[in-house]
């Protein structure tokens, strides 16, 4: 292998150009392939090895990370040995290629496979046409999920962005801005499942006469009320769940909006005030239009999050009492009922629902960059 | 950069011979290793490993057990990915049927089948069979048709164990008159909320219409909104939907986790007197109760309703199925089919075994002994129906149907919704 490289490399200036470029081409194909084969064999070997699992895992990490680096280095080396014109053309692909390959392998191919599976039955053996999609759009539980997701989008996004905006505006004028902002931002550090556990305690229910360990019911009983099983109150229970998302996401909205607020030129605001505009008028007519782009970006990000919402519902109610959402239905069909067809169909519906929002979001991003 | 690359390559090269050596050695031993994958973890996994130690010492075969609480998801992924364990312990017969229909399971060979025939009641073999071919061997099982009560308070109040449903109802009214709630119930169980309710329905079905109709129900040969099923819901509703009979009423049933549910029985004085649950519930009792189980707790089988069917037992269990046919795997499976494989675990407690020829004196206390006795002597044993029904129903609409019914949804529409969801 080594001799091959040296013999193909240096005599570039003289000799038979055709042979040289042929040799180069062969080398540039052979070396990466050889490196890849070695890495692949390594993984197969690791998989079949019987060493302790921790050591296998450690070596797999080194092998994987080192392997990717090695592959990059080898390809880069080969490309650099090519004629400059060719190298320039190939170079970008060496950098972007792995990212695209990984994206294709982990995102594009699975999505296509889900699309394919969504036309088949539970075991993915018999073709059922559009039956899974008909289920997705007619089943009463699914319709309930669509309704609830809409509720999540409207109330969740509205709440998070609304509160984020108000807090950002207020903090901008307050003394301990940093302190209050970090306080609001803190829940961002908590995972959705963790938030679920915390809020379970807030909503906890014990029968009348027992110590209420849930703070909400403790307050209710303190004022002489009857303790409520909050999750079982149909309709309202969705709102109780959405509050958690708002609690988690307000900090995110606030930070981004706050940064945008700092970008509003104070000269314009001053001018408005001198013209006699009230504070509310300044906010409505100057600040909001100025940060509209940011508001849209934040909103679309949280809309996508609300569309995909799963963890909170799964940990709190598991979709019972009329709180089902699309993603929890997908999980149930896939992993509890082993109906790969329906699960895939719901996944595809979700992807299709997210795409327009994402596309709009990306367009806003690129627009703002131009701005 | 280049130097870093070089050192990485060197590390990788240096590391490989270490593995080569290890792998070769392991390959030689591989024929002596049996890998078992199951759903039970922690303490239960430890007791299983202890129970099979005599086998390992006798044969030199190394049985490696791996448990996961995400078992049901992972086993499908592993089988689909072409990387199944040698043996898996499947908690749900539906999973066995699914794998058997795909042809990935090794059917019982004749010597194993003989062992199963002579050591188990025939119901266990048919539970482990798909389309007439036997696959699964049962080991530890559970039985659910039991009612637990706080013994001291019970004796002090002078209550007697009921043997018929009428006696049970009279006892419930007596308890209400004494100012204590008869039942402590809780069906919350995270992603599986509702299963404890379906167990009640199944127990009542077995007692009102018997095993034959029960089997038809499981296979959807009678619809879910059949009067037989509705009747069972109504009998349960007489208890559950009457706030005088259940501690805390319907909201407490819905929001109390099944493990916390028995706790009102152990307050002083008890807030509730009875709790219906499987043998495993003792593990959820408060520590001081567990320490004195025999003195603190009494148990009796849920009384019969129609005397024709006696006292049926509802239960479940993990069945061991084979994916890779090797001599070591065969030896281990044949061991699992004998009482010897359960004896040590029975001695350490917390487990019941179905073997016909088991030694009941091995169980550590009177409670477990009486449970095992009820299990072995039951004329009718049936597997948990929700585990036998297709997942869409058994782990889906049946569970959520019980929840919907408890939150006040009309029973007829709950039942016809479940029927509609049958795939």
Alpha-beta content class of chain B: alpha/beta
User: Using DSSP, what is the number of strands of chain B?
Assistant: 12
Helix content of chain A: over 70%
CATH superfamily of the largest domain in chain B: Periplasmic binding protein-like II
Helix run count of chain B = 21
CATH class value of the largest domain in chain B: Alpha Beta
Uncertain runs of chain A are 1-14
Judging from the principal axes of the Cα atoms, what is the shape of chain A? globular
Q: Return the structural class of chain A.
A: mainly alpha
CATH architectural label of the largest domain in chain A: Orthogonal Bundle
Describe this structure in words.
Chain A is mainly α and 371 residues long. Helix content of chain A is 76%, strand content 0%. Chain A contains 16 helices and no strands. Chain B is an alpha/beta fold and 423 residues long. Chain B contains 21 helices and twelve strands. In chain B, strand 4 and strand 5 form a beta hairpin. The radius of gyration of chain B is 24 Å and the shape is globular. About 3% of the residues of chain B have low confidence. Chains A and B meet through helix 2, helix 3 and helix 15 of A and helix 1, helix 4, helix 13 and helix 20 of B.
